[in-house]
Write a structure and sequence with these properties.
The chain has 456 residues and is mostly helical. It folds into 3 domains: 91 residues, Orthogonal Bundle (Fumarase C, Chain B, domain 1); 249 residues, Up-down Bundle (Fumarase C, Chain A, domain 2); 63 residues, Ribonucleotide Reductase Protein R1, domain 1, CATH 1.10.40.30. The chain is built from 18 helices and 6 strands. A two-stranded antiparallel ribbon has the order 1-2. Strand 1 and strand 2 form a beta hairpin. It is elongated, with a radius of gyration of 30 Å. The two termini are 53 Å apart. Bound molecules: arginine.
Length: 456
């Protein structure tokens, strides 16, 4: 028997039932559903709608159901449409007709919104822990490589020397913003919809603030019609997941590139590499490629949900049942990726010699312009003069630092023999010591600031 068949004269079509049922995926909210139901039973008793004794019977039955789920002995029945109907059906089996009092004043609309918020909050908190773990490893590795000089790129073309620690910390700060976003999202997940009924609210004197505190919510929803159909929290959390996925994907792309023998800057540990079934020499960065690939899937989860939401009329609509799988998928995907990405970074071998070999003197052309600026030349003119030096070196087929002093003096009388000091990669990165720059001391300051954030 369904929970709502009273006005119907024939059973639901089997194909429709399979389409309609959400139990296959929403059963993972069993613990949240039971928690919400226990709070509701207590709320009904506080409001005098049921007796204390009835509430105790209901709570006892619900705790028994929780034990069945934990032990793996809970048996779903034919006709359990979703986790809410399954729990209520089992409750009535266990405690008898009083089980039928639990749903007083409650709708599955405010119930599912409550369950999903409880679930999403837990998932977001777990995600934060996993992201912070990766951040810690990034900061530690950045500290090890604060002095390691490597080529820096813009447009993926050789740009200026940077330190490897600076590169790693650039990812750290992306993830730090992700954690800020997740924390901010949690504050909006943390609103209790229970007590909204189907759409219009509850006709009994339910103390919703007490319900909120029992379930650990920071506040109660201010409008029942909004509360039953508000999935902003899912969209926000999915956006947080999607952007986090995009950040991981960018790191992955760098590692894939830098582990290519043409670069040779890093090597993935054997346990985080894969081989080819045909080519014995192959060493593939599959974990990073999957990270890049799965970021697309998480972005799909977000766009799917937004598309579901955009045309909905006021109040709850069954379309909203489509909110769960995308979030479950995004959270599961990140739950798989984050420990692997963390392991890759933790075990990555850096090759400072190969990084240094990738440096070319032209990457100091900006430093040459800055040298001229320090001698009093306006930057635009200095840029032009350094550009002429680059052209001259290319025409002669020599590296920029191999032009003679006479050649350079021919470009500007401001150039003196102290120009030799310009062509020093270590000095170049050391000079960028303003806060946020690539200098070793700046990277060490970033690492210290980052680790302090993680210690909070
Ligand atoms: N399984 C449903 C969902 O996930 C529960 C709410 C059903 N509400 C309703 N009025 N049919 O959204």
């Amino acid at each position: 028997m369904t929970l709502w068949g009273g006005a119907f004269s024939e059973p639901t079509d089997d194909d429709l039932r399979r389409l309609n049922d959400s139990l296959p995926f929403d059963q993972r909210m069993a613990a949240e559903d039971i928690r919400g139901s226990i709070a509701w039973a207590n709320g009904l008793a506080r409001a005098g709608v049921i007796t204390r004794g009835e509430a105790e019977t209901l709570v006892g039955g619900l705790n028994e159901i929780a034990r069945e789920f934990t032990a793996g002995t809970f048996v779903f029945a034919e006709g359990d449409e979703d986790i809410h109907t399954a729990v209520e059906r089992r409750l009535t089996e266990l405690v008898g007709p009083v089980g039928g009092k639990l749903h007083t004043g409650r709708s599955r609309n405010d119930q599912v919104a409550t369950d999903f918020r409880l679930w999403a909050r837990g998932a977001a908190v777990d995600l934060l822990v996993a992201v912070r773990h990766l951040m810690r490893v990034l900061a530690e590795r950045a500290g090890e490589h604060a002095d390691t000089v490597m080529p820096g790129f813009t447009h993926l073309q050789p740009a200026q020397p940077i330190t490897a620690g600076h590169w790693l910390m650039s990812v750290f700060w992306m993830l730090e913003r992700d954690t800020q976003r997740l924390t901010d999202t949690i504050s909006r997940i943390d609103v209790l919809p229970l007590g909204s009924g189907a759409l219009a609210g509850v006709p009994f004197p339910i103390d919703r603030a007490a319900l909120a505190s029992e379930l650990g919510f920071a506040s109660i929803s201010p409008n029942s019609l909004d509360a039953v159909s508000d999935r902003d929290f899912v969209a926000e959390l999915l956006f947080g997941c999607a952007l986090l996925g995009a950040h991981l994907s960018r790191l992955a792309e760098d590692v894939i590139l830098f582990s290519n023998p043409a670069f040779g800057y890093v090597t993935l540990a054997d346990r985080y590499s894969t081989g080819s079934s045909l080519m014995p020499q192959k060493r593939n960065a599959d974990p990073m490629e999957l990270t890049r690939g799965k970021a697309g899937r998480i972005i799909g989860d977000l766009t799917g949900l937004l598309t579901t939401l955009k045309g909905l009329p006021t109040g709850y609509n069954k379309d909203l049942q489509e909110d769960k799988e995308p979030l479950f998928d995004a959270i599961d995907t990140l739950g798989q990726l984050l420990p692997v990405v963390t392991g890759v970074v933790r075990t990555l071998t850096f090759h400072p010699d190969r990084m240094r070999a990738g440096l070319v003197a032209e990457m100091l052309a900006t430093d040459l312009a800055e040298y001229l600026v320090r001698k009093g030349m306006p930057f635009r003119e200095a840029h032009h003069t350094a550009g002429r030096a680059v052209r001259m070196a290319r025409e002669r087929g020599v590296p920029l630092d191999q032009l003679s002093l006479d050649d350079l003096r021919g470009l500007s009388g401001l150039i003196a023999d102290d120009v030799a000091a310009v062509f020093d990669y270590d000095a170049s990165v050391r000079s960028r010591s303003a806060p946020g720059g690539t200098a070793p001391e700046s990277v060490r300051a970033q690492v210290a600031a980052g680790l302090a954030l993680l210690a909070d």
